[in-house]
Amino acid sequence: MKHRNSLAKQSNAKMLDNDIAEYVGLGEGSSHNLQKYQKVSVIPLVFLIFYEVSGGPFGVEDSVQAAGPLLALLGFLVFAIIWSVPEALITAEMGTMFPENGGYVVWVSSALGPYWGFQQGWVKWLSGVIDNALYPVLFLDYLKSAIPALESGLPRTIAVLVLTAILTYMNYRGLTIVGWAAILLGVFSLLPFIFMGFIAIPKLNPSRWFLVNLDSVNWTLYLNTLFWNLNYWDSISTLSGEVENPSTTLPKALFYALILVVVGYIFPLLIGTGAVPVDRELWSDGYFADIAKMLGGVWLRSWVLAASALSNMGMFVAEMSSDSFQLLGMAERGMLPSIFANRSRHGTPLVGILFSASGVILLSWLSFQEIVAAENYLYCLE
C-alpha cells in the first residue's frame, strides 16, 4: 500500500510539474512581448474595478423604496459580506493563480476543459457587449432634457456613433489612459455626495435610519437591487495579464475597491434618508438628484446629474477593456483566431476592441428595456 501511495505521489508530482511547465511556458511566451507596454498599477485598477461593479450610488434608490432605510442600509452591508467579499476573494485567488488575460475563461477551461471555457467566454462577452450598449443610451437620456433633439432621429444616431467612437479610441490608446480616466470620472462622480454630506449635517435625524416595516417589503425588488449593485467582481480578471505584479496588486486593488464600493453606497443612503423626510414612493432612480436640490440647490442637483451621466462613460470604458482583453486571452489559448491576439502599438487588443464597439453600435438601436431583458437572459445562462 505504501509503495502504491508512493508511486501515486510521484505520478501526481510529475503531472503537476508538467501542468506548471505548460502554464509557465504560456506566461513566458506572452510576457516576453509585453515588456514594452506599461502595466496597470493599484490605484487605476481600483477604479477600473469600481466601474466594473458599481460606478457610484446611482441606482441604489430602489432599495429604500422596496424595504425602507434600515433594511437598505443593512442590506448593502450584509450582502457585501456574504456575496461580494467571497466573490472578490475568489477573483483574487484565481487571478493570482492564473495571471493572464481571459480570467474566468481560463478558470473554467482549467477545470472543465476548453469546450466549456469557450462557452463561458462567448456568453460572457456577449453579455458584456449588451451591458455596454446601455451606457450611451443612458448618457443621452440624461442629456435629452437639456438638448431635446437627442431624444430620437438622426441627431441621436450621430450622438451614439460619436460617443462610441470617442470612448473606443480611449480604449485603443491603452489601459493606462483608461485607468486614469476612470480615476478622474470616479472622483467627479463621488465628490458631490461628499459635499451633500457636509451640507446635510445640521439636518440629519438619525432616527430615520431605523425606520422599517416588514409587512410592506418588496423582497423581489430589494434583493434584485442589492444583487445588481454588488455583483461582477470577477470581470476584472479578464485583464490580469496587464496588471503590474498581479500576485500583490490584484488582491490589494480588490480590497480597496470593495471598501470604496460599499462606502459609496452606504454614505449617500445615510445622507438621503437622514437629512430628508422619508417618503418611500419617491425613492426611485434619479432621486439623489432631487435630494441634492433640497439640500444644496440647483447647482448641486446639476452636479449630481452630471456625475450620474459621466459615470456611464466610466462603466463603458471599463467594460470594453474587460471584454476586449477577454477575447485576446481566448485567442492566446487557441479558442479564437490568432488575429484576436494581435496588439496595437499601444498594447491594446485592436480586433477585440473593434468587435466590442461594433456590437455596442448594433445593439444601441434597441430600447433600454429590450437591452436589459437580453442582458438578464444571458446572465442566467452564465
UniProtKB/TrEMBL annotation:
Q: Which family does it belong to?
A: Belongs to the amino acid-polyamine-organocation (APC) superfamily. Polyamine:cation symporter (PHS) (TC 2.A.3.12) family.
| Organism the protein comes from | Prunus yedoensis var. nudiflora
- Report what the protein is called: Putative polyamine transporter
Q: Does the keyword Metal-binding apply?
A: no
Tell me, what is one Gene Ontology molecular-function annotation carried by this entry?
symporter activity
UniProt superkingdom:
Eukaryota
Q: Which PANTHER family match?
A: NEUTRAL AMINO ACID TRANSPORTER, POLYAMINE TRANSPORTER PUT1
For this UniProt record, the keywords arranged alphabetically read as follows: Cell membrane, Membrane, Symport, Transmembrane, Transmembrane helix, Transport
A Pfam family it matches: AA_permease_2
Subcellular location per UniProt equals: Cell membrane
